[in-house]
Design a protein that fits this description.
It is a single chain. This protein is of the alpha/beta class. The model has no long low-confidence stretch (mean pLDDT 92). The radius of gyration is 13 Å and the shape is globular. A five-stranded parallel sheet has the order 2-1-3-4-5, with helices on both faces. Helix 2 crosses helix 3.
């Protein structure tokens, strides 16, 4: 029996708009992914702690506040600190094109901007968020 991919979908910081995150969470569930949605106003520490405690394969951040550089960097730092870099970090939101290569270089696996087809996001997650043998 295959174990479903487990992904934490999170809204870090003070951004109060979560409709997109909920749409993505629903699409991933429909694609067979087990989703843990953390809700609004999560700190990077809370997000990483949840991912580690839930034995997640991936973290998807939804960032609309403009703080994407700081928030993604902090989540990556905390994943390193927790020796959990096997958790795939991806995200979406209002992210300027110029910042995407920098975030990718930092270690963010994929970024989805407004207008990205939901089916493409779900397909990317199911193809690229790996379940590591023996991780559970």
């Amino acid at each position: 029996m295959d174990t479903p991919i487990r992904v934490v979908i999170a809204k870090p910081g003070l951004d109060g708009h979560d409709r997109g995150a909920k749409v993505i969470a629903r699409a991933l569930r429909d694609a067979g992914v087990e989703v843990i949605y953390t809700g609004l106003h999560q700190t990077p520490r809370q997000i990483v702690d949840t991912a580690v405690q839930e034995d997640a394969d991936g973290i998807g951040l939804s960032v609309l506040s403009g703080a994407h550089m700081t928030l993604f960097a902090e989540v990556l730092r905390l994943l390193d600190e927790a020796d959990a870099r096997d958790i795939t970090l991806f995200g979406g939101g209002i992210i300027p094109e110029a910042d995407i290569p920098v975030l990718r270089e930092m270690g963010v696996a994929a970024l989805f901007t407004p207008g990205s087809p939901i089916r493409d996001i779900a397909a990317w997650v199911t193809r690229n968020v790996a379940i590591f043998e023996g991780a559970r």
